[in-house]
Every structure is written in C-alpha cells, then in structure tokens.
Design a protein that fits this description.
By secondary structure, the protein is mainly alpha-helical. 64% of the residues lie in helices and 7% in strands. It contains 8 helices and 4 strands, in the order αβααβααααββα. A hairpin with a 2-residue loop joins strand 3 and strand 4 (140-143).
Length: 163
C-alpha cells in the first residue's frame, strides 16, 4: 500500500471515533517499518488505544507506542536469545545494529562488531537463516522480525548485547 493511501486510511479511522492524528504520524510509522503493514498496524493500534476521544495523537507518541510493544515482546525475545549459541547471538546483534547488513564477512564488519572470523559469521548466519530469524536478499541480511530488530538495536545501544 502506498504511503499516502495508508496515511489517509489512518486519518479516517481516527476521525471515525472522534480522534485526531497529527500530520506526519502515519507517514513516520510507515517510514520506520518500510511500509510493512503488520508492524505499522501494531503501532497504529497502540496509538489509537492511547489517544482519548477528542484528542490528537502526535509524533511524540510513536516512540511510546513502540516502547510499549517492546515491553510486551521482551520475554519472548529474551527466550529466543537464550536458546541461541553465543556466536549466533553476537552476529544477530551485529546485523540488527546495521539494519540492512552487507558484506558481513568483510574484515571491516568482523572487526566493527568484534566477531571471531568470517567463517564463524558464515556458519552463524547459515543457522540464523535456517531458523528464519534472518532474511537475505541480493546480498543484504536483515532480521526477519522488525520488532525484534528494533529490540536488539536497543539492547545493543544500552550495552546489553554482551551480557
């Protein structure tokens, strides 16, 4: 679905229930999740629930909604990480940090994320692809679940990736 059509749809849904959506909110959510409907709808549903009738949902609310979803999924994501061997976990964090990772066996990537070696990255990625945790298209690797990717990015940013 095109961004303009999605934004119009969201505006109408909010208005239908006496709520308002500030300009740019739907577009921002669309951009953050690359137009993937599932993730956009999850965030928009939280924004809708958090906006009282007669009020306006602003762009500032997006991060609050995403944080709420991250809290809901934390236990599942922690369990998933616990089940992964350390090398797979480390590579997963590195790819999540990149967002869309290319040249993951290059010395630059391996050094940047303090990975063991190109061969260990290869074997970890192969396992993560088989488990459907990663996707790969045209040499670009990405975490399949965009919420997991965001959660991992936050963990990495907080320095929790190595704990």
């Amino acid at each position: 679905i095109r961004q303009d059509i999605y934004a119009e749809f969201c505006q109408k849904q909010f208005a239908r229930y006496g709520k308002f959506l500030a300009d740019g909110v739907a577009e921002d959510v669309y951009q953050r999740f690359g137009g993937v409907t599932y993730y956009m709808q999850r965030v928009m549903n939280i924004l809708f629930m958090r906006t009282p009738e007669g009020n306006t949902c602003t762009i500032d609310e997006i991060d609050v909604a995403i944080q709420y979803l991250m809290e809901l999924f934390t236990a599942n994501y922690e369990d998933l990480l616990y089940q992964l061997p350390e090398k797979q976990r480390t590579v997963l964090y590195a790819i999540a940090r990149e967002g869309q990772a290319k040249n993951i066996t290059s010395s630059t990537f391996v050094k940047k994320y303090h990975l063991n070696s190109a061969s260990s990255v290869n074997s970890a990625v192969k396992a993560l692809l088989e488990k459907d945790i990663l996707t790969m298209s045209k040499g670009v690797y990405q975490v399949y679940d965009l919420f997991l990717e965001h959660w991992l990015y936050l963990q990495f940013s907080r320095g929790l990736a190595n704990s």
